[in-house]
Design a protein that fits this description.
The protein has 416 residues and is of the alpha/beta class. It contains 16 helices and 19 strands. It has 2 domains: 4-148 and 354-388, Rossmann fold; 154-348 and 399-414, 2-Layer Sandwich (Dihydrodipicolinate Reductase, domain 2), CATH 3.30.360.10. Bound molecules: NADPH dihydro-nicotinamide-adenine-dinucleotide phosphate. NADPH dihydro-nicotinamide-adenine-dinucleotide phosphate is lined by residues 8-13, 34-36, 39, 64-67, 87-90, 92, 110-111, 149-153, 191-192, 195, 303, 351, 355.
Length: 416
């Protein structure tokens, strides 16, 4: 019994808490901590309402400012937590990681650290933050698995698995993220608007020909033929996973493509052109100081509130191209997730679900020792087989499409 502390009480934390509760026979007590106690209590209540908890461990809500390292260490100790799932805002990563290193708890997150006032950082982004603590992690013997949501996270494991199982040499990995669902609102983001917009307001980094290439958002678009969601337009976007996969996999071309509808692009372009997505404060004629991005966030729907009416599916995967036995080959490793099914199971939409399930699968692999590596790693540095196999049983089923057709991926059957 390891006991788990979940930090954050947003959409991803909601799913992570439900999934921990479903698996608390191996994970032990589950604690949820965030700035707003009421949000943590609401998660605990929803677990009770859904009857998600399988074992008899504690399920408890806590108030915590996770930027306060000493308070976070005290909570880790008082709850006896050996695993910390950080699914709070990415501004918290370095403080929570420090608390973990200093208490010896395992650390998991689903996004790269961000500083609130820095938008355009040089690549690789991990080197600006998390990787600086690699030696400290190793010295403390603390396990830290970075970016283990869906993207980053599962797509890193897909890239690694495809390389190992299907290719002698890989030329390119195109990660494609399509949300073909509809929430029925005029405009909303699927996760924290502040974080969502920050992804698109700076320049777009991609890994091309073994080096970083910069372009503008919405500069490059491409149509992809995908299972279930069909022909989909996606735009070259900068994203976390490129910043570790480029270093760890030795693949010359790694790109990230995200699907956007014309309506999203129009609204985004208007907001951005007016300066309403800026994180720099402005002063009104009345002397009020306002951060435009924070104001936009305040008037947009709370992403968690989209879940009850969300319909349709997401399709996220890696299209990998290379050679096997001197012949060109193309393989798509992917997952399809249904918004409504997620809502029925845990009360969330698919974007939160696809991020929350993997981080709990990783926690379970730490708890059973398989991924308890006692150092800092990105997901593609770990054996992807137990991870993919476990997620197949936890509600996120991986499929593969190649020249032999389209099938559920059993990683132990398909790897050499
Ligand atoms: P939300 O914005 O819904 O939730 C963030 C939570 O962080 C809130 O509950 C907030 O608490 C909490 N928080 C912020 N500051 C503090 C603090 N100082 N101390 C304690 N808690 C704090 O985000 P999501 O649930 O949508 O996303 C969570 C994480 O997952 C983000 O890092 C996001 O980038 C990442 N993500 C990753 C994906 C992937 O596939 N890899 C996909 C989607 C998201 P409160 O409300 O109480 O103030």
């Amino acid at each position: 019994k390891r006991n788990v502390l979940i930090i954050g009480a947003g959409g991803v934390a909601h799913v992570a808490a439900h999934k921990c509760a479903q698996n608390n026979i191996s994970l032990g007590d589950i604690h949820v901590a965030s700035r707003t106690l009421g949000k943590c209590k609401a998660i605990v209540d929803s677990i009770r309402e859904k009857g998600s908890q399988r074992g008899s461990g504690l399920l408890k809500a806590h108030q915590l400012d996770a930027l306060d390292v000493e308070a976070t260490k005290a909570l880790i100790r008082s709850t006896g937590s050996q695993i910390v799932i950080n699914v709070g805002s990415p501004f918290l990563n370095m403080s929570v990681m420090t608390a973990c290193i200093e208490t010896g708890a395992a650390y998991l997150d689903t996004a790269i650290h961000e500083d609130p006032d820095q938008v355009c950082e040089p690549p690789p982004w991990y080197a600006n933050h998390e990787w600086k603590r690699r030696d400290a992690c190793r010295a403390a013997g603390a396990t830290a698995i970075l970016g283990v949501g869906f993207d980053p996270g599962v797509v890193n494991a897909y890239g690694r698995f495809a390389m190992d199982a299907y290719f002698d040499e890989v030329e390119s990995i195109d990660i494609i993220d399509i949300n073909a669902g509809s929430h029925g609102r005029y405009f909303a983001t699927n996760f924290d608007p502040e974080i969502n917009f920050r992804e698109f307001t700076s320049n777009v980094w991609s890994w091309e020909g073994g080096q970083w290439k910069s372009s503008r958002m919405f500069e490059h678009r491409k149509d992809w033929d995908l299972p279930v969601v069909g022909r989909s337009t996606a735009y070259l976007t900068g994203h976390d996973e490129l910043h570790s996969m480029s270093k760890n996999l030795g693949v010359p071309n790694i790109r990230f493509w995200m699907g956007f509808g014309d309506h999203y692009i129009n609204v985004f372009t208007v907001l951005n052109s007016l300066g309403l997505l800026s994180e720099k404060p402005v002063r009104t004629a009345e002397g009020l100081e306002v951060v435009p991005l924070k104001l936009v966030k305040a008037v947009l729907p709370d992403p968690a509130s989209l879940a009850p009416t969300y319909i349709g599916k997401t399709c996220i995967g890696d299209l990998v191209k290379g050679t096997k036995n001197c012949r060109p080959r193309e393989v798509l490793v992917y997952n399809v997730c249904d918004h409504k099914d997620c809502y029925e199971e845990v009360g969330s939409q698919a974007i939160s679900y696809t991020a929350g399930v993997p981080v709990v699968a990783a926690a379970m692999l730490i708890a059973n020792g398989v991924w308890d590596v006692r150092q800092m790693v990105n997901v593609e540095e770990l054996d992807p087989k137990p991870f993919i196999s476990l997620m197949n049983r936890m509600g996120l089923v991986t499929r593969v499409r190649d020249e032999q057709g389209d099938r559920v991926l059993d990683p132990y059957k398909e790897s050499p």
